[in-house]
Amino acid sequence: MANLTTNAKSRLRGVVFDMDGTLTVPVIDFAAMYRSVLGEDEYKRIKAESPTGIDILHHIESWSADKQQKAYETIADFEKQGIDKLQIMPGAAELCGFLDSKKIKRGLITRNVKKAIDIFHQRFEVIFSPALGREFRPYKPNPDPLLHICSTWDIPPNEVMMVGDSLKDDIACGKGAGAFTCLLDETGRYGPDDFSVTGLHPDFKVDSLSKIHNLLETNFDLSP
């Protein structure tokens, strides 16, 4: 990924995180969720057409109200199972402590519901503000949630970084807003072909949240 040390260091005053799979250990079986909502045949068809991943929330928006309600109930069941097993991602607490020490603001954007954010805040005992769930429309990958946070902070997007584990949601959101982007890829899921196909090239890619501390100090001016 890019290294920004060749030029004068860019200022960084805020970091916005995705929640599921970024600040929390991924536990939701998304493939099973999509199969339950779509049915096996429709799941296979859409998956074949969407190599970078299925946007289930966008897909069901065109459904009838009754069908949407059932879909949201199914999604909520899977998300509740995720909440029951919620674990903080290794390195998250230390990274938040580092950001606090530098007076760098931290926010959160998730396609999960606000209730999940509240439970995460209670268990983690660290607050992200603003913290936006899918009740804020339009949700990721639209850049509006990130632009809303930047506006609330009164910090321009080019002094903010979006960190997440989804190329199509988090990196697309960050790029669309004009922010720096950092892809968390613990398992080597993404490669150059994925970046080329989507046209989404994160500024940085790490395999652990613990790597972000050094990345920020190396590449950015972190003065308040």
TrEMBL record:
InterPro entries assigned to the protein according to its UniProt record, in alphabetical order: HAD-like_sf, HAD-SF_hydro_IA, HAD_sf
GO cellular component labels: chloroplast
Pfam families named among the record's database cross-references: Hydrolase
NCBIfam families documented for this protein: HAD-SF-IA-v1 (TIGR01549)
Entries under PANTHER family matching the protein: HALOACID DEHALOGENASE-LIKE HYDROLASE, SUPERFAMILY HYDROLASE, PUTATIVE (AFU_ORTHOLOGUE AFUA_4G13290)-RELATED
Protein name per its UniProtKB record: Haloacid dehalogenase-like hydrolase domain-containing protein
Native source organism of the sequence: Brassica carinata
